[in-house]
Amino acid sequence: MTKLFPLPLFLLPGGIAKLRIFEPRYLRLVRECSANQEGFVLAMMQGKRLYRYGTLVDIVDFETLPDGLLGITIAGRQRVEIQSTEQEADKLWLGDIQALNDWPHDEFIDHEESEEKVRIAAGLKHVFAAHPDHAEQYEAPYFEDLTWSCQRWLEILPLSNAQKQWFIAQESADEAKQFISQLLEQEVE
Length: 189
Fold this sequence. Notes:
This protein is of the alpha+beta class. 36% of the residues lie in helices and 31% in strands.
């Protein structure tokens, strides 16, 4: 079974986030995942219920934070479906997971959709410029990859948990592309 870390954080493959670790069960999760060179699933939770979809993440960096707590940097590796769960004595969640296929990547090839693609990438560049603390997590942003740009948009948009779960369950970024493009068109009008 795979270790699960329930958080209100939404991360997709290619996404990067920093976490503060202080609860003993999550310190154990980090210690065991690091020792075994395995990832854990970032899972969303509503009340006491874990949602069905999450993202398998890898720990890519550690640091001691100014307050003495452990800081880790995680990177999204793969979308997963959580098929069953259980909790250990210290309340650490474990789950049986099934990997989902990566969304096909879509670089700027199709000239008919190029205006939409440029709008999505340019909007994300603007967000990154306005939030350099977020942007600095990405050494080499892949703005030219529309799927990557859509994934970053979904991570930062104020969507409900149900909406995030719906998007993460999709087999491609097509719905996300349409949704983000419509939002950006409304912003211009």
